[in-house]
Amino acid sequence: MPRYFLHIDDLGTDPDGTELPDVAAARREAILSAREILAAAIMAGREYVPRRFLITDEEGELLDTVDTKEVLPKVFGIP
Q1: Which of 26, 36, 41, 77 is within CB 3.0–4.6 Å of 4 for a Cys-Cys bond?
Q2: Structure pTM?
Q3: How many whole angstroms separate alpha carbon 9 and alpha carbon 20?
């Protein structure tokens, strides 16, 4: 099974990666992780939250990007 790395912004924050069946599964995992990270940041009162989450493969190739605005509820009206 391939290993995918879910990084916050460009920080290389996932050194171990996760074995997942495909890029679609990696994207779902990135969305769930992004929601958890954003919720924790908001609850802690942080002004800065990550802008995007990057999905790379074992060679470091960028496969997909999840922007923070994609994981926020639509009620906020962020385009």
Answers
A1: 26
A2: 0.83
A3: 21
